[in-house]
Design brief:
The structure holds two protein chains of two kinds.
Chain A: E1 7-8, H1 13-22, E2 27-29, H2 33-40, E3 49-51, E4 60-63, E5 66-70, H3 75-79, H4 82-87, H5 89-96, H6 101-106, H7 109-113, H8 120-123, H9 164-170, E6 175-180, E7 183-188, E8 211-218, H10 221-224, E9 227-231, E10 242-251, E11 254-263, E12 270-271, H11 273-279, H12 286-295, H13 308-321
Parallel strand pairs in A: 1-3, 2-3
Antiparallel strand pairs in A: 4-5, 5-8, 6-7, 6-8, 9-10, 10-11, 11-12
Helix pairs in contact in A: 5-9, 11-12, 12-13
Chain B: H1 8-12, E1 28-34, E2 40-46, H2 48-51, E3 56-61, E4 81-82, E5 88-94, H3 97-106, E6 108-113, E7 140-142, H4 145-150, E8 154-162, E9 174-180, E10 183-188, H5 193-204, E11 211-214, H6 230-243, E12 247-250, H7 255-258, E13 266-274, E14 280-291, H8 303-307, E15 313-322, H9 336-353, H10 358-364, E16 369-370, E17 375-376, H11 382-393, E18 405-407, E19 410-422, E20 428-434, E21 440-443, H12 453-465, E22 472-475, H13 492-512, E23 523-529, E24 540-552, E25 558-568, H14 575-595, E26 625-631, H15 653-665, E27 671-672
Parallel strand pairs in B: 1-12, 8-27, 10-11, 14-15, 21-22, 25-26
Antiparallel strand pairs in B: 1-5, 2-4, 2-6, 3-5, 7-15, 8-13, 9-10, 9-12, 13-14, 16-17, 18-19, 19-24, 20-21, 20-23, 24-25
Helix pairs in contact in B: 5-6, 9-10, 9-15, 12-13, 14-15
Classes of the chains: A alpha+beta, B alpha+beta.
Chain lengths: 330, 680
């Protein structure tokens, strides 16, 4: 057990890149709400750390027709930003449905996107967990399944991704701004998270030495009407059984633009492409919402203990698409 | 007298000192090595890596500490047997908490596993009858219930399942053993300071005078800081003696799931027979629960069925099956809470069959005396409770049929249930000491688990002496004080009030006679009250709880909008504390009904959700509007007129919530916690 943690405090992105280059294995930390838990549970080894707080990545601003959120911005600040409430209400709703006020006051957007799964077999140290110990198996198949994924799972791993923010951002066509040793690149959010097909331990596509510095969202009528719905047993401080982000625009009684993403059901935040296809160009009627809901089941591989989430997902889709329904309704 | 909580300022300012914060110089820290299997034999412990860590002082495995005299409860570090996952296999002592935990994680356990059974379904050994159920007989029968049900106009046959639930007091269990010569001071988060002293002295072969137990502040207990905590105190005391230094053990939150008890999962089978008018003619209530391989405890789940309603023919039974799981013990209104869930939802179903208001069915079956003991009640104010709570809730506007109330996306339902819990009183001693500055100290060796004992003691003394509570100091939680009862079974207030009042009357008499304390010579008055003899009356506290539940029409999430309750528990000593206890109990009832369940992995035998993120306890956002009415009940048969109300908030709440969910959806849910997938 180390006597203390080494924490770098880079004054600029350039310095941050230098630290990551000179001390490979150094990990960036935002609010630390995730990392400290992982360290305490022995789920992650002690390494040198690098705080993101000194890099000035906490802006929330409009650049032309893009809403840009700094990866270092705190969840609570973004949730109450007037810009976000106007241009991307689903983001604000998703953030307010996450964690607790105490966590939201310190946790950052970037850290939230890169959080590890809440699967109790991973977190609790069960003997069979391929994510923690490759080759040890996956206890979900013979055990508790209520939290497990319907989509993107395998015999290797069924752990769901827990970020509400990621689900909302997916429905808003978010792009990540990533800084690396060779400069800046853009990455669609959908390409960040990986499914555990072969390597349950590899959860995102960033390379060593890369940092998410910002999240960019195109402004649109659909984005301004976006909503986030989160279903869980208690009214706060619980991860989603099923969650849904909807960005829908109808013109002259017809669906003009539709994005749907679901949480609590996939090994990564799950875009509902088939539901979107069932909506495109269709009349804005209950029959259309129903067919979008049915389409969401495609590709699902339910287990006995989580099959109810497939029914729940369809109900959420129908409910969220109907025009009279409010957003998150805790 | 409605004073504020006596210790509020100290708690809010962080001055209240809990067991793990006792500043004993030179304290070493202990941690536990948990069994990685649920059943089997320990072949060996490899402690080399752990012992090599700087700061590690000692590691004690099975046989390393002297054997304990058997005090009749579960023990560990005694042999190589593993009975449940998480069972402590070694005690690691180090110079810091972090080092002790890190070292414990470095101990390698080699074990030979055996097949385990971690649920009633998995258990292969046949059920057996325990020696008793809680404090009452295991099986009872009056009349011929099978015949009565067979010939009844209305017959109900239902099965209820309730998941395993855990106490989870906010304060983790802690004990700090400090030897000075042959004197042991044990700071321990215990609900029974004197019980602990007795057990520790006996098990370690000491005189009681050699042992002092201190529990100044207790951050909740709910039954978990009792018998199962004793072995930990003993092993830590032995380690401290061996090492010649104080040793502190504090459990982790995860360990509080596997080491200090739980409410057993239960399966209840309830059969009722009633006349066409809804009068009960026969009831049979059978309960099956779990117990560990090494100890036996059965919750008196069927107890209320014996006496709550007027019914001539009643049979109740309790059976246990041994499973490789943490030992069940009393938890948050044990027995009556799971039992009333079954009984009150059954009454509700009977009401619907008869097309009667649920309140009416209870009126028709009201027991004017205790039908089980055949004794009159000391007092039973259920009708007043019904009236007050129903009026507060607006119950008269309830439509009889389910699925008729809607509010936007929410289906609304109203349900109610009776609440009842027996009253017990134990022997208690108290001393009042008045010093020449006019201050009075109440000295009584009971405990305050956060329930308000400090306040109630101060209020009782102040009221009797006719002085302000601000002039009263309270000393409790120490075995050097006059002996008080354990905190459990809602006995504390009923037990100490007569003793404190007697001592206060004695002091007042001396003051009235002209005596005054002098500097260095305080006035003392001491009193002892005995436990009651064979009763001539049956003593229970009663209540009624009314719930408005809302079920989302799409997602089937269940949220509670309003909970109104009325309780009649004799004389209310501290209204503020009583109200707080009732609300806290209701929250416990809500947790039990809608949220709490531990999940055991069938392959590893470990509890999967052993943390407060995944084991769901109600949060602030879940809270409904609470209205608690405390009915002033004058009971001439109880000393001090006090009944105790700690349990009432939790009992019956489950039935009321499930009945409200039925009224909203038409779905009768008989397994707890109620989960939305049961309503989809």
């Amino acid at each position: 057990m180390s006597a203390g943690l080494q924490v770098h405090r880079p004054a600029s992105l350039a310095q941050a890149m230098a630290v990551l280059h000179e001390q490979p294995g150094t990990r960036p930390v935002g609010g630390g709400t995730e990392l400290v838990t992982l360290l305490r549970s022995g789920l992650t080894p002690h390494t040198p750390l690098m705080t993101m707080a000194t890099l000035g990545l906490d802006q929330v601003a409009l650049h032309g027709d893009q809403l840009v959120l700094g990866a270092g911005a705190r969840m609570a600040d973004v949730a109450r930003s007037p810009l976000v409430l106007r241009e991307a209400p689903a983001v604000a709703q998703a953030l307010l449905a996450s964690a607790s006020p105490q966590v939201r006051n310190v946790a950052t957007l970037g850290g939230n996107l890169l959080q590890r799964t809440r699967c109790p077999y991973f977190r609790g140290g069960a003997p069979a967990c391929n994510k923690r110990v490759p080759g040890s198996g996956c206890a979900v198949h013979t055990g508790e399944q209520r939290h497990a994924a319907l989509f993107g799972a395998s015999a290797q791993c069924c752990a769901t991704h827990a970020s509400d923010l990621a689900v909302a951002l997916l429905a808003l066509d978010a792009t990540l701004v990533v800084q690396g040793p060779r400069g800046e690149r853009r990455l669609p959010l959908e390409a960040l998270h990986l499914e555990p097909a072969h390597d349950a331990g590899r959860e995102h596509s960033l390379s060593a030495g890369e940092l998410i510095t910002a999240i960019a969202l195109p402004c649109s009528a659909a984005a301004r009407a976006s909503r986030y719905l989160k279903v869980r047993d208690r009214a706060s401080f619980q991860f989603a059984l099923v969650s849904l982000a909807v960005a829908l625009e109808c013109r002259a009684g017809t669906v003009a633009h539709a994005r749907l993403a679901a949480g609590g059901v996939g090994t990564r935040p799950w875009r509902l492409h088939t539901s979107e296809a069932a909506l495109a160009g269709q009349p804005a009627t209950p029959a259309t919402w129903q067919s979008a809901a049915r389409a969401a089941t495609q590709g699902a591989e339910p287990l006995p203990g989580n099959a109810f989430k497939l029914d729940l997902l369809q109900r959420c889709i129908e409910h969220a698409l109907a025009p009279s329904s409010p957003g998150d309704h805790a | 007298m409605n004073s504020t909580r006596w210790e509020a300022a100290a708690k809010v300012q962080g001055r209240a000192r809990y067991t793990a914060e006792e500043p004993v110089p030179g304290t070493l820290h202990a941690a536990l090595v948990p069994a990685p299997i649920a059943h089997g034999r320990v072949l060996g412990l490899d402690t080399r890596a752990a012992l090599a860590m700087p700061g590690v002082v000692a590691i004690y495995g099975s046989g390393d500490l002297p054997p304990l005299r058997d005090a009749g409860f579960a023990n560990w570090l005694a042999d190589d047997q593993v009975h449940w996952a998480g069972q402590p296999l070694a005690l690691v002592v180090a110079d810091s908490d972090a080092t002790a935990r890190a070292a414990a994680a470095q101990v390698v356990v080699s074990a030979a596993p055996l097949p385990h059974a971690t649920s009633l379904a998995q258990a292969t050994t046949p059920p057996f009858a325990p020696a008793q159920a809680g404090r009452v007989p295991t099986d009872t029968q009056r009349g011929q219930p099978d015949e009565a049900i067979a010939f009844a106009e209305h017959q109900l046959d239902l099965h209820c399942e309730i998941a395993a639930q855990h106490h989870q007091p906010l304060e983790p269990h802690a004990c700090l053993a400090h030897w000075e010569g042959g004197q042991l001071t044990l700071y321990s988060s215990t609900q029974a300071v004197f019980g602990t002293r007795r057990v520790v002295a006996y098990s370690l072969g000491l005189h009681r005078e050699q042992v002092r137990v201190v529990a100044r502040q207790l951050g909740g207990g709910f039954g978990s800081k009792g018998t199962l905590w004793w072995p930990f105190n003993l092993r830590v005391a032995q380690a401290a003696q061996r090492l010649g230094r104080p040793v502190l053990l504090e459990l982790t939150r995860a360990q509080m799931f596997s080491l200090v008890g739980r409410r057993s999962p239960t399966r209840q089978h309830l059969r009722l027979g009633a006349t066409a008018e809804g009068r009960l003619t026969g009831m049979v209530h059978d309960t099956l629960a779990e117990t560990s391989p090494v100890a036996e405890y059965a919750d008196p789940v069927g107890a209320a069925t014996r006496w709550l309603y007027a019914c001539e023919h009643v049979r109740t039974t309790h059976r246990l099956k041994r499973v490789n799981g943490p030992q069940p013990i009393p938890m948050r209104a044990p027995g009556e809470t799971p039992g009333l869930f079954a009984l009150e939802t059954a009454l509700d179903e009977l009401a619907w069959r008869c097309r009667l208001d649920p309140l009416e069915i209870r009126r028709r079956n009201f027991a004017t005396h205790d039908p089980h003991l055949g004794l009159p009640w000391t007092s039973n104010s259920l009708p007043d409770c019904w009236q007050r709570a129903a009026e507060s809730f607006g119950w008269q506007r309830r439509p009889l049929a389910p699925c008729t109330m809607v509010d936007g996306d929410w289906r609304v339902g109203w349900g109610m249930a009776n609440v009842a819990y027996p009253v017990h009183r134990l022997a208690c001693e108290a001393e009042l000491v008045m010093t020449d500055d006019g201050r009075v100290c109440v000295r009584c060796g009971v405990q305050d688990m956060g329930s308000g004992t400090f306040t109630a003691l101060a209020d009782t003394a102040a009221r009797t002496l006719q002085i302000s509570p601000a002039q009263v100091d309270v000393a409790l939680g120490d075995s050097l004080l006059p002996e008080g009862p354990y905190s459990g079974g809602t006995v504390v207030t009923a037990s100490f009030v007569p003793a404190v009042e007697a001592a206060a009357h004695a002091l007042k008499a001396r003051l009235d006679a002209g005596e005054r304390p002098a500097p260095g010579e305080p006035l003392r008055a001491h009193a002892r009250t005995e436990a009651p003899d064979a009763p001539t009356h049956s003593a229970c506290a009663f209540g009624a709880v009314f719930v408005e539940a809302r079920v989302h029409r799409a997602t089937c999430e269940v949220r509670l909008a309003r909970v109104h309750a009325a309780y009649a528990a004799g004389r209310i000593v501290s209204p503020l504390m009583a109200h707080s206890q009732c609300v806290g109990g209701l929250v416990g009832g809500i947790g039990q009904t809608l949220h709490e369940a531990s999940v055991t992995d069938p392959v590893s035998g470990r509890i999967v959700n052993d943390n407060l993120g995944d084991y769901l306890i109600p949060v602030h956002a879940d809270m409904p509007e609470f209205k608690v009415h405390l009915i002033d009940e004058h009971d001439p048969h109880l000393p001090g007129g006090v009944k105790g109300l700690g349990m009432l908030g939790t009992c019956g709440t489950g039935g009321a919530i499930a009945n409200a969910v039925w009224h909203a959806t038409g779905r009768r849910i008989r397994s707890l916690p109620i989960r939305l997938e049961q309503l989809l």
